[in-house]
Amino acid sequence: MGFNLTLSIEDAIFQGGVRVHKMKLNNFLVRELDGRGVADTNRTVLLKEFFKDPARYVHDSEVLREIKASGRYLRAERAVREEMDMEEDVNRLYKNGVDNLLKWLVAAAEVKANVHEITKRFLDAVAEEASKPTTTSAAMKLEGLYESVYNARWHHVVEVPGGEGAGMYVREGKPKQSWTYKAVGETFEKDDAVQQSGEAPPVLMVLTSDRGWPYTLNGPHRCGNDLCVNCEVDRVWQIVKGDLTKWFSNFHLTLNPSPVPHVLIGTPGIGKSMAAGSYLLYQLLHCDVDKLQVVVHCFGETAYVFDKTAKTVTKYMGNLTSKSVLYGLWKSGMKGYIIYDVAKKGTPPDTDIAPCTGWGMIVVSSPNLDNYDKWTTQVSASRIIMNCPDKDDVKAMCVWMKQNRQLAEEEAEEEAEEEAGLLEKGGMSNG
């Protein structure tokens, strides 16, 4: 939804989203709590009525105690309470003649003081964004990008040591054996001493998305469909995956509400490359959709929202727009993960960009402290240092690029021969 000063107060606050408090009680119990407490007499009961007096609608005290102890109940109760407060504020503002953002900007101080603080802060922020002449917040659906990234094709580069045929070669598909790692303190390092039986690990893995990646779509040249993954990039994923696995198995709204936030620090141009963020995106899309429903790849004020439930990608522009979208997804009960690439020097993420519960986040940055230090300190993020590619990594990348170029030339020659054959056939039939 675009923000402008003629936007109604109701649309500015709720943005056309589904209201949680208008959900039917039985639907909520079936969808979120495995049907516990469902009753035929509650078919028309709304959540807002249920939360006023839960015992009136769920008579079994043991079942009700279990329901109230669940994180989903607590999240829904909070969302309903906030929605009811906001609806009350909308009605109060309308009675005072404040029905759009422009009228909110010029409203008397006593009118603004008469609404809840959360409503006031939100309307102030939206009105400020709408006042900017350069604000562009329209959502753009990117057809085919979800399938392209999710179904990215695998290749890998292997090294054949010594003797005849020695060298590096490109193989199709995912390698049978990947790298192994060992725990060192709170992080992982590659373990060269361990090698499982069978084929040796690859030197390099390559993922190809025919429609590119958010990183390349957001870049100045809009090119590059191949994602080169070395052991350092994969190591980052192993760390993130480990934290997610712990969180998935021990989610608690109060004690363990979100996975560990991370900041990934690499060298300019290499460590902070498309590889780490894009590889995390690919792997997060393949996480269990029941546990993680959204993955967001951000570049400054541009956000690519991958909805795993709908299998769609939507591009949003504008910092406030992106935060509003994420808040809406969180309010609807979705869990997600944000990959924030510091796209420009001095554009660190806002400390409140990620919803307060149920969402993880990693910031990908060069070593410039200004890019991440404030965010890292305020959210107590764990640091991951990513090393530069070594000489074998670079050599493998060159082997891949050379073979890829040869394949492209061969395909072009085959297409030219096919076209020539068709033209020749057409000429003979006409003769």
TrEMBL record:
Ranges for the Retrotransposon hot spot protein,C-terminal domain? 263-418
**Retrotransposon hot spot protein N-terminal domain location:** 146-250
> Do you know which InterPro entries this protein is assigned to?
Crinkler_effector (IPR052980), DUF7578 (IPR056000), RHS_C (IPR046836), RHS_N (IPR046835), Trypano_RHS (IPR006518)
**Domain DUF7578, first and last residues per copy:** 19-83
Annotated segments matching region Disordered:
409-431
Name the residue ranges with Acidic residues bias: 409-421
Which protein is depicted?
Putative retrotransposon hot spot (RHS) protein
Natural source organism: Trypanosoma cruzi
